[in-house]
Amino acid sequence: MISNQVIFNSITELKNITKVDLGVFELNGGCVAATFETEEMNREMIVDFADSPAESQVIGEHHLLKITEEDDVQYILDARSLSEDAYMIGRIAVVQIQELMIAYKERFDRNNFFQNLILDNLLLVDIYNRAKKLHIVEIQPRVVYLIESNKMDTTIGELLRGMFSAQNGDFVTSVDEASIILVKAVEEHSSVESLSQIARTIVDTINTEAMVNGRVAYGTIVEDLRDVSKSYKEAMMALEVGKIFYQAKNVIAYSSLGIGRLIYQLPINLCQMYIHEIFGGEIPRELDEETLMTVNKFFENNLNVSETSRQLFIHRNTLVYRIEKLQKATGLDIRTFDDALTLKIALMVVNYMNHLEQKI
Fold first, then answer.
1. Which of 7, 150, 290, 308 has the fewest CB atoms inside 10 Å of its own CB, making it the most exposed?
2. Are both 205 and 250 inside the same structural domain?
3. Which CATH number characterizes residue 53's domain?
4. H-type alpha helices, 146-267
């Protein structure tokens, strides 16, 4: 439904151009928006006109017209002026407000459609029938982006709607208060880098314009409108998996989750069995924050001792000492590929188990 503020902005802009005062009233005489101060006599006049079959009426300086939507009267417009052009200006205002009402109604209908589409609340036949009525292309490569920030508000939604236009096939909506969904139309053969660039642009814009820290996850490209929910579910998983295993990243793609996606879908009893096999049921105390940072940096540098010690600003021998200390505690020498892989998976499983414990 169109807001009172939008109506007020519209008639104020027209009044500034034409110098004719305009007011929009409900059928019971209540004022929606006006560029002049309303009076009690105005209410009675509006109610009488709303009940009459006339489409327009002139009472002194009041030029009254009905604002309709699908043949139903929604509002009464009062163009207040003794000017001969007042009636014509009132007609212009009526047309402008009716066009705004149509645009906002279509936006609401599209919002409702995409929300139900994403949540799998529509039958297949309903998807195509409603898409046709709403002029939504059925076969179009799309990808769903899920945007989350540490301070979610309406500003971010409006910011995204300004960045991505429905005219280009994009749509911004939400199904909860924690995140915003962007259904993005893309080129048929969009590269992984182009999809990632869109996500980085969103994060940068949110950071600079809304002054909040954002995180963006996205699914894979789908061709058919009915598969948008699939891309949304992938984006949801990417966001959740990213929080557990890739906390330093603010852009997470479903296609790049790797082993994190596999671990995320493991039952808790298998995770506990694996940790028991590796650590004997209890994680060694030597895996403190410093050790974990060292291990992660070592993994990032593909088990390269020299490069890792350089980036950690420590002597090579210090790094070797930490690795050997870890080997005594776990029996794993992460300088070898097999042991490094085993510990990497074990640490990810520990993170996953900690995440599950926090949710309980």
1. 150
2. yes
3. 3.30.450.30
4. 154-163, 192-205, 228-245, 259-264
